[in-house]
Amino acid sequence: MEIAWAEFTPVASFAGGAMIGLAALFLMLFSGRVMGMSGILSGLLVKRPDWAWRLAFVIGVIVGPFLFMGLTGAPVERQAVISGPLLYVAAFLVGLGTAVGSGCTSGHGICGLSRFSLRSLAAVMAFMVSAVITVALIRFLG
Amino acid sequence: MLMIITALSAGAIFGAGLALAGMLNPAKVVGFLDIFGMWDPSLGLVMAGGILVNATGHYFVMKRHRPVFNTRFELPTSNHIDRPLLTGSAIFGISWGLAGYCPGPVVASLLLQPADMLPFLVTLLAGAFAGRWLRS
Known about the structure:
The complex is a heterodimer. Chain A is an all-alpha fold. Helices cover 70% and strands 1% of the residues of chain A. Chain A has six helices and one strand, in the order E-H-H-H-H-H-H. The model of chain A has no long low-confidence stretch (mean pLDDT 96). Chain B has one domain (2-135). Chain B contains six helices and one strand; from the N terminus they run ααβαααα. Chain B is globular and about 45 Å long.
């Protein structure tokens, strides 16, 4: 293992993480809901009485990066790792996997681990291990 | 109405936090997962910052009987580690490693790069629909 020091952004990443934690805390304190992106999204796929706050949350998330750019004057850096059909295979699997596994990086990772949920810990370990193996396989085979 | 304002604000803080953290850059996400190559530990600090703030706050929030604008805390009740949880999460991990996108950043990137991210989100939702059907 080599550390990519040139890429390492400890202060911004820690501060951004703290904001994500704050958002989750805010939603729990005021609305009593778990801030899980996959759950909030998939709740919009079925007819439910609580669609309005879900949609409001989604709109907030879409607007958020523009607030960041407006307040800091910094651009949002983005660099894709794959494109074409494979990108959409991944998109389908993100939706499928998080629906079957009842959560993603925000729901299990930020919220579940903060409640010391063993179920979320198992989920986080499962997706971390499989993601690391996937990246390693691409590195060694590709 | 208060629930909607809360959700909108929480969403905006989440989206801005994702941008600041570097989570909207798939190459950076994959750099964190690439522990056998050039490893970028940044996203570990995203996790640490998020859990530190949320876990500390959660402890105090749970001392309340109910949320400020709602009748009860709607927390997951299951603590059962079952096969769908592990298989689903492992499948999600494969796609996360492949493309560097988890659901939050997909939504947050929607208007940053709509030509790619709009079809990505629609495909993700199709996958979620299939997942719900598989589970039922």
